[in-house]
Amino acid sequence: MDTRISTGDQGFIPFGVGCRQCPGELFVTTTFELTLANLLYHFDWTLTDSVSSESLDMGEVLGMTLHQRTTSRELKLITMDELSVGSLCFIAVATLGLSLALKRALLSSKTQALKLPPGPWNLPVIGSIHHLLGSELPHRALLRLAHRHGPLMLLRLGEVPTVVVSSPEAAMEVMKGLDPAFAERARGTTIDIVSFGGKGIVFAPYGEHWRQVRKICVVDLLSARQVRRLETIRQEEVTRLVDSIAVTTSTSSPIDMTQTLASLTNDVIARAVFGGRCRQQEEYLRALTAVALTAGAFSLVDLFPSSRLVRWMSFGERQLRKHHAEMVRIVNSIIQERREEKASPYPAGAAAKDDDDLLDVLLRLQKEDSTFRLTAEIIGALISDIFGAATDTTASTLEWALAELIRHPRAMEKVKEELRKTLGHGRATLTGSDIGELHYLKMVIKETLRLHPAFPLIVRASQESCQVMGYDLPQGINIFINAFAVARDPRYWKDAEEFNPNRFEKVDKDMNSREFNQKGFEKIGEDINSTTAHLGFIPFGAGRRQCPGALFATTTIELTLANLLYHFDWTLHDGESPDSLDMGEVLGISMHRRSNLRLQAALSVSSGLSSHSN
Ligand code: HEM
To answer: TM spans, by residue (predicted)?
Structure first.
């Protein structure tokens, strides 16, 4: 039924007339009618402060006015001065609704012939967002929705259609079978700002630029040779950490392991990139954190990319641009300083030196005769991508591993026993070469990554139209691969919610994984450093956009965890029980523990540190 109120009568033209007549009239009138009917049906309304109805101020003011209902059934009029951010959002959302309703009508005619994946019901304007609101984090809410709608599901996040992949089979098709079609990353205003317009690697559009920077990362920055070369840095930083913890053992004061591990990974990465001789390192890390925090906040701009109104209202976008500009300024100044510091900066063709840090490697490559121009902007973008991808992920994985071991004393005892048996007693330091035989320790890390993937949602986009699991996915659609859901699929992981490192023992002899292989799922590597035993385990992603820093990450995590568990016995502070340890999650750059992990350390019987550090 058409409830339009315009009569077309020239004496009544609240929505205008003619070819520019408001196209949102139907939307607005239905909203007004429903709201007013509800307000008048449910409540009796009076004026506050005994104002009589005759004296009610009916004066006009130009701007926007809104009315507000309070639970005490008072009527209050507010003017533009009092207009809240929420009210502004309401206006924005309503206005957006008009344009989106029209756009969707046009779009739906284009997609009618396609067999799209199923999904939850949508509301006007916000689409499926209401299914994701509440206390659950997005990866958990999406897992819940996948139970109802299936492993491939279509959502509309604001105006952005997004397909969510939630099973190993679907992940297999997207990341392996159709790898090139899905090697694109999703774009958006926030991503464009933080990624220098895709000039780095993480959010680079799939194409020639990405191929070139990926080659630099895989061959020159994060190769096995480079990771070995950085062994000294890892070793020194972990030793420094162990010594600082040893000092606390005599005072029995608790240690904030969240902060301690964040500092460790920051220092390791900063020394690897800047060589530890960079004056502005701290300043850079502060600017990077400000960018990460602003970018991590909920962004309407990304949900309604076509809306100029949302853009105009977006405080976050302006803040993000400001913090990002500061980060660019600092990194440019670091590069400039490095060039001036070197007597003969990076002559073309000169061999890399042993003490070259990653910035040296990049500046040296810049001098090489190549068709690919490695500009200062690309170097800055690569450096910030490496910091962003490396520090938070490594620290949070270490923290989850410690927390899980505290909650599982038998696993803790088993890993410590392996350390004692393999390395003996009385060692003051453990090095990278001690790690090779620590199989149970590696299984603990794998199990931690399975239950707590640093990036629970891996973000991709389709660069061509294709079919997945019998459904049509149009070109340019955003894809979320729910690594969290995939690693909890009960068909492949028995007691999937349980922390059980043993499940990684001989993974292909395991009943579940045999079933996995029989169904034709290919193993794509067995060693932890190749990151994936099968597609039910994708903490580092898979396919051509798979994490190139996995070796760097796992060597740092293994060395740190081995040292922490060899030298110390860990307990919770103040007699807190392991069962009550908060394992809640929160999303930052990566998925963290909700509360800081505060632990007490005592020197273990195996440690050779007692006289050394105290
Ligand atoms: C526990 C630690 C880490 C985890 C769990 C992790 C996970 C991931 C994941 C899931 C992706 C997306 C992969 C995909 O789309 O298939 C990724 C991409 C990436 N990671 Fe990591 N990562 C970690 C540490 C690191 C480290 C230490 C570095 C560098 C030193 C790094 C550098 C990168 C880069 C450059 C990309 C983008 C690759 C591309 O788009 O081509 N990561 N990582």
So the answer is: 83-102
